[in-house]
UniProtKB/TrEMBL annotation:
The keyword Oxidoreductase applies. Keywords: Oxidoreductase. One of its GO terms (molecular function) is oxidoreductase activity, acting on the CH-OH group of donors, NAD or NADP as acceptor. SUPFAM superfamilies: NAD(P)-binding Rossmann-fold domains. Residues 128-147 are annotated as: Disordered. Belongs to the NAD(P)-dependent epimerase/dehydratase family. Dihydroflavonol-4-reductase subfamily. It comes from the Bacteria. Pfam families: Epimerase. This is Aldehyde reductase. It comes from Marivita cryptomonadis. The keyword Oxidoreductase applies. InterPro entries: Epimerase_deHydtase, NAD(P)-bd_dom_sf, NAD(P)_dehydrat-like. Residues 4-239 form the NAD-dependent epimerase/dehydratase domain.
């Protein structure tokens, strides 16, 4: 039976991947950062036989031993903040070094199949591409461009490092799954930054929407793609955008408002002049300004053709997120 080593197993996306793996009969060894996360996963999957390894993306200890006996590396672990860090290297180094650390361990364990969670952030900001032209998997974000934030740079550099690694180790078949902003139902009270955005949208914390767009996808589709890629020959050596659609933040709010009229979603977009003033005092607002006048749209045509399915509509993903935030009164925390 195929055994999958799943890194970052307590993350929002990874929990859905774990459920998909278990439902399809895979054996799983999950990497976690603490015993608290182990108990969390055991509570979610009480009837499953799970193996665990406690590992740190920034440290070599334990990686080589942890991956022994596994057939597939599914690397999802990577920092994902809601706000821009003071030092970009706080995101870049763990993302790049952690990816290479996991892949070196996979090579030493004799593994030949790797599925990597990347991001549309590694695709949609190619500096020499017209700003209002949609992107696809042939595009690469230019990390050194001034419009590129720390998270976008970290995902781009980590994915490039993975492709460079397999270029030197051609016996390893790599697939990268590149989601947009990931919405949908969380499996527990810990969820990622995308759902924190939904929480802000529905509670009035964003009174006016910045005039920017965002590519979005449902977490259930992201999980399906990861697991389906394991044995899909056409997925080997390829990167795939996981994208259901691209909409403005105001349109996100309108979708949610049409579902529940009582929500305090933004009713209009913020004028650019106001954002420029706010950007003088806020690094996060300044980062938002870099996305004004460009589209972050990424085509999902390649994924739909290769995997043979239609993505869950963005509105359904947003409603599932808002339902969790409202009904269960979950408190958002970055994974």
């Amino acid at each position: 039976m195929t055994k999958v080593f799943l890194t970052g197993a307590s993350g929002f996306i990874a929990k859905h991947i774990l459920r998909e793996l278990l439902e399809q009969g895979y054996q799983v060894r999950a990497s976690i950062r603490s015993d608290k996360r182990k108990a969390e996963l055991q509570g979610l999957f009480p009837d499953a036989t799970l193996e665990f390894a406690t590992l740190d993306l920034t440290k070599d200890e334990g990686w080589q031993v942890a991956l022994q006996g596994c057939d597939v590396l599914m690397h999802t672990a990577s920092p994902f903040p809601l706000t821009e860090p003071k030092d970009p290297q706080d995101l870049i180094r763990p993302a790049v070094d952690g990816t290479l650390r996991a892949m070196r361990a996979a090579k030493q364990a004799g593994m030949t199949r790797v599925i990597l969670t990347s991001s549309c952030a590694a695709i949609y900001k190619q500096s020499d591409k017209p700003k209002m032209h949609p992107s696809d998997e042939t595009n690469w974000t230019t990390p050194e461009d001034r419009s590129v934030g720390s998270y976008e740079a970290s995902k781009t550099l980590a994915e490039k490092a993975a492709w460079d690694f397999v270029a030197e180790n051609p016996n390893i078949a790599l697939t990268t799954i590149n989601p947009g902003a990931v919405f949908g139902p969380p499996m527990d009270a810990r969820y990622g930054a995308s759902l924190e955005l939904v929480e802000q949208l529905v509670t009035g914390k964003i009174p006016m929407a910045p005039p920017v767009d965002m590519v979005a996808v449902d977490v259930r589709d992201v999980a399906r793609m990861h697991v389906a890629a394991i044995n899909l020959e056409a997925a080997k050596g390829e990167r795939f955008a996981a994208a259901s659609g691209t909409y403005s933040l105001l349109e996100f709010g309108n979708m949610l408002k049409s579902w529940d009229a009582s929500l305090k979603t933004p009713g209009r977009e913020a004028p650019v002049w106001l954002l420029r003033i706010m950007g003088l005092f806020s690094k996060d607002v300044k980062g938002v300004l870099e996305n004004v006048g460009r589209t972050l749209a990424v085509s999902s045509a390649k994924a739909e053709k290769t995997f043979g399915f239609t993505f869950i509509p963005v509105k359904d993903a947003l409603v599932a997120s808002a339902t969790a935030v409202q009904t269960h009164k979950l408190k958002g925390t970055s994974k």
